[in-house]
Amino acid sequence: MTSVLSSVTPRLTVSDRIREKLQQGILTRNQVDDFASFLSQVEQAFLKHPIITQNAYTSWFQQGKATDDELRHFIKQFSVFSNQFLVAALLKVINSPTLEQSRASREILLNELGVIYRKLDGSIAAQSAQTEEEKDQQGDPEVVSTEGTVDGGICRFRAAHFEWLIAVAEGLGLYYKDLGQRKHGRLTTLHFCDELQRLYGSEEPDIAEGASFAVENWAAAGFWQELEDGLTRIKQTRYPKLRLAFFTWHNRVEAQHAGHTLEELENVYFQPTFDRAQFIQGGRAILDAIAVFWNGLESDRINRVYV
């Protein structure tokens, strides 16, 4: 399978959108230089965080050597984070400071719940004669799209991301009753879920903005590729019918989300009320919580703890 994300830590640079505003006189050279300096600060604080540059658990997982017990434990803990993220995403919608930001947050939440992205040009994905294997790797066009908007999109139960994860779990002997609820989570997993609600869904807009920026750039930095690589190896060697659409789709779409967060930052940074310190605070704190989650899985693996 062709890799779509690189494990190399990305760089944050001033976009063409900002350069155009400079040329048009909307922004001054000092403002743009100031923004470039802030991006360097964010890059240092966020993108060089150890959980992005050196995730021991996902590096191990990529090898595809997880035992059945280790694999089921991973899926169960990941399902708790994935399902509980809905609470944080709803809080982000509720606490959005502007209608535009509320809509951007609803795009994420509603897609998570099963509203399929509709392409802005009105086109519909071609219903090609895909095999079930191709649908699993590339996405079933009836339930998957990586671009467009949920506005005017179709809702399908089986397009909900959690249902895709259930499909993975069922191939390993886990079912709906085993997944996604707080009672299934380790303390380290629940800490991450609680911090997502506190930070990603914060009432303080710049705390939430920083947390959102950090989460999306963490997601785009390569861990999805490591998970997909490991699961693909397991599928090839042990579970030929294992369904991986949950992981392959997220691997394809997360880089796009990270690009959107940069545009969101550009929209708020030049507002007089923007608080740089709170933005950095929110991002660093959520990355620390992400580290608790992954390091907890690594500790469970080393100590052979399974739930």
From TrEMBL:
Domain of life of the source: Bacteria
Quote the InterPro entries the UniProt record gives.
Haem_Oase-like_multi-hlx
Report the SUPFAM superfamilies cross-referenced here: Heme oxygenase-like (SSF48613)
Q: Please identify the protein, giving its name as recorded.
A: Iron-containing redox enzyme family protein
